[in-house]
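Regression test case RT-17, inverse folding.

Input:
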């Protein structure tokens, strides 16, 4: 039986970028079961565009819903309650998938049916040279979040069992979820570039804002604390904290040096 995949796209005031994201989902070589877009209270005309798309699209089921602004976690969870596919594929509204992304990841699930979650990589994400399929357990995941949200496909039943995204987290809520999944399920990274993220947006300290760096760091520490509270090993927790602070210091240094460059 052909596996069914529901694409989940939360959006907030990204009218210009959203069309490309949805188009990349519609163009998948493995046809999606449905695309669910949650407008998280946009004020830029996004909702009008979504209604028009849902009315005109015939090849793939497109569900659109609008809610009061509650953040990406709440938007994704709203979509999960509507989803009916065997697998859930997450996509952010300023990112695009390569056309064979879904098919390539489903091939991994087919070859390794005991896996709950499979990620992929984006351009310039240089990890695990020479390895194509990399097992990612909790130990590996604590020292780096290898799962970019728009690259993840996960079994819907697994998401239901762990409770979806934590709506009380504003940063690193995805990291928290991946740690919960990896604690009791097998996961892997398909080390192939199958998506493009945010028109070259930086993964940290965008525009040199130290406040953004601290927000990310605070969210990461919160994810670690929650993992520890669920019974995570004390030694792994302390090691993860130490590496996290070293990584934070490096990011601050890089952003500071970038800001001091001539011509900035």
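Golden output:
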């Amino acid at each position: 039986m052909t596996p069914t995949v529901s694409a989940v796209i939360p959006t907030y005031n990204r009218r210009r970028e959203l069309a490309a994201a949805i188009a990349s989902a519609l163009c998948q070589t493995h046809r999606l079961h449905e695309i669910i877009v949650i407008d998280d209270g946009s004020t830029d005309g996004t909702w009008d565009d979504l209604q028009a798309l849902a009315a005109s699209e015939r090849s793939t089921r497109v569900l659109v819903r609008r809610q009061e602004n509650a953040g990406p976690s709440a938007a994704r969870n709203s979509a999960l309650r509507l989803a009916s596919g065997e697998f859930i594929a997450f996509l952010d509204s300023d990112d695009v998938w390569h056309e064979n992304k879904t098919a390539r990841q489903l091939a991994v699930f087919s070859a390794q049916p005991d896996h709950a979650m499979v990620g992929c990589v984006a351009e310039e994400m240089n990890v695990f040279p020479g390895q194509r399929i990399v097992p990612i357990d909790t130990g590996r995941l604590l020292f780096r979040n290898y799962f970019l949200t728009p690259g993840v496909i996960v079994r819907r039943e697994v998401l239901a069992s762990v409770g979806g995204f934590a709506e009380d987290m504003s940063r690193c809520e995805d990291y928290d979820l991946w740690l919960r999944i990896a604690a009791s399920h097998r996961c892997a990274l398909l080390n192939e570039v199958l998506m493009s993220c945010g028109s070259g947006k930086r993964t940290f300290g965008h525009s040199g804002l130290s406040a953004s760096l601290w927000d990310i760091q605070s969210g990461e520490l919160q994810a670690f604390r929650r993992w520890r509270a669920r019974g995570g090993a004390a030694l792994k927790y302390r090691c993860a904290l130490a590496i996290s602070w070293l990584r934070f210091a490096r990011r601050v240094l890089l952003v500071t040096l970038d800001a001091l460059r001539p011509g900035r």
